Amino acid sequence: MGIPATAQEMGFEEYEPESTLVVPENLVTSAKFPFVDAHSHQWRQRMTVESVDQVIKDMDALNMAVMVNLSGSSGDELKEILAKSKERYPDRFAVFANPSYEGIDDPDYPERTAAQFEADVKAGAQGLKIFKNLGMYVFDPLGRVRVDDPRLDPLWAKAGELGVPVLIHVGDPAQFWSPHDRFNERWLELKQRPRRKRDGDPSFDQLIKEQVNVYRKHPNTTFIVAHFMWLANDLDQLSQYLDEFPNIVTEMGAIIYDPARQPRHAAKFFAKYQDRILMGKDTWAPEEYYTYFRVLETADEYFPYYRKRHAFWRLYGLGLSDEVLQKVYYKNAIRVIPGINPALFPQP
What we know:
By secondary structure, this protein is of the alpha/beta class.
């Protein structure tokens, strides 16, 4: 460990001021209502009897009634994940399948992939999860596979036919395409994680356009748009898409720091779209949920986020009403994701 820099030598990375602001603090370690985490990952390779039991204990402490595991894979791997989690705790996990893009140029790929997803749903999957590799890292002999590639149309249509949602993560924050300079508020993240810097094709706007094409083309399929569509810093633009496409809802995985720096505007957004927002976090780290609870449930002011490279600024609580909280925490998930047991939640 190096010698701490003097005040004159210290850089932004070392600067960690302790706030002298004296304001009420309401630390929240357990959600006010039982909730569904619509965006979590439990990887098959790490699943053991002991690890799954520990996850359940942590869920209980957080008041998490149901965890949606988006890393369900497909076929035999999906069945293994279901056996390790959902078969042991039937009401506590929902598992989403993941498609393969192998052989996407084969003539039978569209029908084969849709058929495999149908088999996965019959095996116990409750939805489909699309990772950001689609649109960015999946290639065929002609180049990048677009999110709106017509070879995937049968898959989107099959989800609609089966009545299960597609949770879709497209792209990265727009700042990853901006110059890595003193004006970029993701400067620290790009310094610490330089591989996250994006250049050229596809652009952020192009990825937005491609996913929107899918929502427009498949109005009978419900899409859960991950990470507030990476538009949590521009809620008015996100509002336009929610208004245009009644078949989409969104979830707040890994973006709570943006609503929490615009609490008045964000609180109005949550109130207006209270039927279209799902609770979600992404990375499984139980203590990090405390920040989500505090942002959603309290009116606290000027408190820190837990990861400086994502948000060097302080956060403010939205102070959502019980009506909005209940919808975000569980009612919307019950409506959108089939198979969640309503008895786990407060009854009218």
